[in-house]
């Protein structure tokens, strides 16, 4: 095996190893994967800036200059990549079998790992360095094996939702704490004991308020609605509320169908028993959270219902978010519910 | 066996074993006392428990109940789409845009046929039915016809295991007719104002008719725009 072949394999395995490790790390893997994918390009730019001649400030031209540089080092063939600008977006197309990272790309879904396209990560790093702008990125591969990437300017720098600032843990820039299931259950039990009629309302409202904070933060850095929602759902998993799958999302109709596996609230019921007299759906916090997510992302008042719950025998908790009927629209708008 | 509750904490506390599906509840009360609010709580609880809920709107168009539920953060479109919340319009006659509407408000046979038809199409295992208010349907109908209709209807609901709540507005029907009709129900809830015009309180009595006597417990309650019906601590009054 030639040296460059084994080197490329090692790089692919390195990325897989990173994703495999991050799978077990709590808190927002996507952000860290993105940072890792941008890292090598940042080092290359620093070391070889003298050799790189960025004569244009157009995003496509900047990326092509970088590709040409990599071609001059024998790392890839620049013309394999097609770049085009569409409005403010930069589109990139490449056949997957021409990409150095195809092994990582093909293997990550097989192993159930988080995937982040290395090449778009490279472009994000280059654009940030040369143009001084943050870009959010997405990549999809069609049935013919052609990868289509999209880089869009992010209005605000992309930041980690969950972060550590010295000894202080922060979520969406605000100080946060970790709660055990037992601690959260004890809060619920206290509410049930002192004001049982408020329990559902408190949970829904608390979910909505905290969801709105997260969603505003995410919407600002991820303008694409579906991407923004996916990032938020990923955060929910990282924070520990459950693994949420976006079954369907139709922004024009204001609808979203979601499934939550291993809901934190359903787990509490499984251990501590139901908080209600008859078996019923329990995940009011998540219901409020999802209502806020979809409302903020779509900038439209959305209400969310839990149609089935793991705590009453479902395989997962099922949520349906829909807009308020036009003739039933209340006075309250999502933006009115700010608590900051 | 599944047991159901009203979804009103202070009320449910008094129903140790809950309500059996197939039982019928009579709710009688003054105008403006909160009967529709109670109906909303009952439906809300049913939806959370996975029941299919049917609401028959006789005194207001169905949109009034949709708005009411929405005020309590219940997104009716999701349940309606899933076929778990069904409205029957028994208010607007020919002007109704609802899927199910009663064409002749003074014809109990037509109502019976429509209710039967709606219930027949429900596939869910547990059903709650609320008629708000059934006394409106009975207005201008002769007492013997009402009793015949009611006996047949309740027998059918019981057989099908439907948990039904029939609402009666006080002073609309003859007291004797209400008393006789009351014997057909498993539970009776009386809701009334008490006190004077300057300091009135809402009272709620829940009980059963046993040996010609109404055995009940009485509770004071208020209506919160956020939480719905709030029943005060048991007043310990027994009649």
How would you portray this structure in words?
The complex is a heterodimer of chains A (340) and B (239). The model of chain A is unreliable at 331-340 (pLDDT under 50). Chain A is built from 10 helices and 11 strands. In chain A, 45% of the residues lie in helices and 19% in strands. The relative contact order of chain A is 0.09. In chain A, strands 1-2-4-3 form a 4-stranded antiparallel sheet, with helices on one face. Chain A is α+β, with helices and mostly antiparallel strands and 340 residues long. Chain A has helices spanning 3-23, 29-48, 59-72, 102-110, 118-131, 181-194, 199-221, 225-239, 264-272, 284-298, and strands at residues 82-86, 89-95, 135-141, 146-153, 162-165, 168-171, 174-175, 243-250, 255-261, 302-308, 317-323. Chain A folds into 2 domains: 3-153, 2-Layer Sandwich (Muramoyl-pentapeptide Carboxypeptidase, domain 2), CATH 3.30.1380; 178-337, 2-Layer Sandwich (Muramoyl-pentapeptide Carboxypeptidase, domain 2). Chain B is α/β, with parallel strands linked by helices and 239 residues long. Chain B has a single domain (3-7, 14-199), classed as 3-Layer(aba) Sandwich (Rossmann fold), CATH 3.40.50.300. In chain B, 33% of the residues lie in helices and 31% in strands. In chain B, a hairpin with a 2-residue loop joins strand 10 and strand 11. The radius of gyration of chain B is 17 Å and the shape is globular. Chain A binds chain B through residues 196-198, 201, 204, 276-281, 303-305, 307-308, 312, 320, 322-325, 327-328, 330, and chain B through 2-5, 8-10, 12, 18, 45, 47-50, 63, 66-67, 70-71, 73-75, 77-79, 81-82, 84, 226-228, 230.
């Amino acid at each position: 095996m030639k040296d460059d072949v084994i080197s490329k394999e090692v790089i692919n395995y390195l990325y897989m190893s990173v994703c495999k490790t991050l799978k077990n790390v709590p808190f927002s893997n996507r952000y860290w994967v993105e940072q890792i994918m941008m890292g090598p390009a940042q080092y290359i730019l620093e070391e070889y800036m003298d050799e790189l001649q960025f004569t244009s400030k157009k995003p496509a031209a900047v990326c092509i200059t970088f590709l040409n540089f990599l071609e001059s080092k024998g790392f890839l063939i620049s013309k394999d990549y097609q770049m085009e600008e569409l409005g403010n977006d930069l589109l990139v197309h490449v056949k997957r079998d021409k990409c150095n990272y195809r092994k990582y790309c093909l293997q990550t879904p097989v192993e159930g790992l988080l995937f982040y396209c290395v090449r778009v990560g490279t472009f994000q790093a280059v654009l940030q360095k040369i143009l001084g702008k943050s870009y959010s990125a997405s990549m999809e591969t069609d049935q013919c094996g052609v990868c289509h990437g999209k880089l869009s300017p992010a209005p605000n720098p992309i930041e980690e939702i969950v972060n550590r600032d010295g000894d202080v843990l922060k979520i969406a820039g605000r100080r946060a704490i970790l709660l055990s299931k037992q601690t959260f259950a004890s809060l619920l039990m206290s509410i049930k004991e002192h004001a049982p009629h408020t329990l559902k309302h408190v949970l829904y409202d608390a979910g909505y308020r905290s969801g709105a904070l997260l969603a505003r933060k995410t919407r600002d850095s991820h303008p694409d609605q579906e991407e923004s929602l996916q990032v938020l759902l990923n955060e929910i998993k990282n924070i520990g509320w459950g693994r949420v799958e976006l079954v369907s999302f139709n922004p024009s109709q204001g609808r979203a169908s979601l499934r939550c596996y291993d809901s934190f609230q359903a787990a509490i019921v499984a251990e501590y028993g139901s908080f209600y007299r008859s078996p019923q759906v329990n995940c009011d916090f998540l219901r409020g959270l999802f209502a806020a997510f979809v409302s903020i992302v779509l900038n439209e008042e959305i209400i969310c219902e839990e149609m089935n719950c793991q705590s009453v025998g479902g395989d997962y908790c099922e949520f349906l978010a829909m807009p308020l009927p036009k003739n039933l629209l209340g006075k309250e708008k999502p933006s009115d519910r700010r608590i900051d | 066996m599944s047991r159901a509750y009203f979804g009103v904490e202070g009320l449910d506390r008094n129903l140790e074993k809950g309500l059996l599906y197939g039982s019928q509840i009579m709710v009688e009360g003054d105008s403006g006392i909160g009967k529709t609010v109670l109906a909303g709580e009952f439906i809300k609880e049913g939806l959370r428990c996975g029941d299919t809920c049917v609401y028959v709107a006789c005194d207001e168009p169905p949109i009034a109940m949709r708005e009411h539920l929405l005020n309590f953060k219940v997104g009716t479109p999701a349940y309606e789409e899933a076929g778990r919340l069904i409205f029957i319009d028994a208010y607007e006659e020919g002007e109704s845009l609802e899927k199910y509407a009663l064409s002749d408000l003074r014809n109990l046979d037509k109502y019976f046929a429509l209710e039967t038809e709606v219930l027949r199409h429900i596939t869910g295992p547990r059903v709650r039915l609320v008629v708000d208010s059934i006394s409106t349907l009975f207005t201008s109908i002769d007492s013997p016809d009402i009793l015949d209709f009611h006996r047949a209807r309740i027998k059918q609901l019981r057989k099908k295991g439907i948990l039904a709540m029939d609402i009666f507005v006080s002073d609309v029907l003859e007291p004797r007719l209400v008393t006789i009709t009351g014997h057909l129900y498993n539970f009776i809830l009386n809701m009334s104002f008490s006190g004077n015009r300057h300091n009135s309180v809402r009272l709620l009595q829940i009980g059963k008719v046993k040996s010609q006597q109404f055995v009940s417990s009485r509770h004071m309650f208020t209506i919160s725009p956020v939480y719905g019906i709030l029943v005060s601590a048991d007043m310990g009054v027994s009649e």
